[in-house]
């Protein structure tokens, strides 16, 4: 499991702060140039392709790695923007070969008139002590980044910690959807459902409709900036909701002694999104993916394993007799000839839990 420690630096001198700001300005240019090359179809990139940017080559190489990931996500998102645009305040990123933590000093390369190493003392906090203990115990350090926020400088370091897996016997299957944002079915090791929970999507649907009609009005008035603001607002609202739902799901999993959470591999997005228009579908892909990411992250912190299964037929199969029949699934109801009449998303979450147990 990876944990990130955000360390505050003791206030650097004005001269060093200027060096930081200069390097950040170059990072912005460099990242933009990398994204432009990726957009143009150039994928084999190295620091030598960006001689015009005054940065240590370690930072350029790390930028290439990071922007490649961002670009892939950008392409997947079907954004209407032409390419990613980077905000002014980018972090300066390093991989674990490029920085050192020695006592309470971090040392990193920066560019002045040439590439140089600089040392910065870190504020002594409980968090920092904790990180130092992990280092002494042999934990591996990962990526790090230097960034500026509200007048302060921070160094964020990720560290790989050995996973402490719980050995709980129960399995939670989670179905993620539109009408019910999430439906969880918890089964014991004998395959019997011991609890279930619905996380209603009504409120989210209402908010979506509200923003959609706002967008339509503004679209007719061609107010592009206002539309962008509304999109941001809606995204923030959904992010907040996803945080809450994932927290409740993982708390429930802990309470019910769950060892594995099973979800669908949403690479092939669910059939239920078919009837939506394009803009909505993209938003959903994004929120589904984000909800899964949040669940995964919180589950791992709780020592719960997360597993993804192929979503094929999870909503069409009867969770009681196993028969696959498309017409059995109505909007909210799954109704099988064997006598199984339940909420269709609960039916799916039971199948998901079952598939996770089978392939355990
Ligand atoms: Zn059946």
Give structural attributes:
360 residues; alpha+beta; Nucleotidyltransferase, domain 5; 2 domains; five-stranded mixed β-sheet; four-stranded antiparallel β-sheet; 14 strands; globular; binds zinc ion
How does this structure look, described?
The chain is of the alpha+beta class. The chain folds into 2 domains: 2-160, no CATH class; 170-358, YqgF/RNase H-like domain (Nucleotidyltransferase, domain 5, 2-Layer Sandwich). The chain has 7 helices and 14 strands. The protein has helices at residues 14-39, 57-77, 126-136, 202-220, 224-255, 278-301, 344-358, and strands spanning 2-8, 92-94, 100-102, 105-111, 115-121, 140-149, 152-160, 170-176, 180-187, 193-200, 258-264, 305-309, 333-335, 341-343. The strands form 4 sheets. It has a 5-stranded mixed β-sheet with strand order 10-9-8-11-12. The chain has a 4-stranded antiparallel β-sheet with strand order 1-7-6-2. It has a 3-stranded antiparallel β-sheet with strand order 3-4-5. Strand 8 and strand 9 form a beta hairpin. Helix 1 crosses helix 2, helix 4 (202-220) runs antiparallel to helix 5 and helix 5 packs parallel to helix 6. The protein is globular. The relative contact order is 0.11. Mean pLDDT is 88; it is low at 270-275. Zinc ion binds at residues 318, 320-321, 323, 336, 338, 340.
| Poorly predicted runs | 270-275
Rounded to the nearest angstrom, the radius of gyration is 24 Å
Q: Give a short account of the largest sheet.
A: 5 strands, mixed
Overall, the morphology is globular
Order of helices and strands: EHHEEEEHEEEEEHHEHEEEH
Q: What small-molecule ligands were found?
A: zinc ion
In which range does the helix fraction lie?
Answer: 40-55%
- Proportion of beta-strand residues: 15-25%
Number of helices: 7
CATH class of the largest domain: Alpha Beta
Domain tally: 2
Do you know the CATH topology of the largest domain?
Nucleotidyltransferase, domain 5
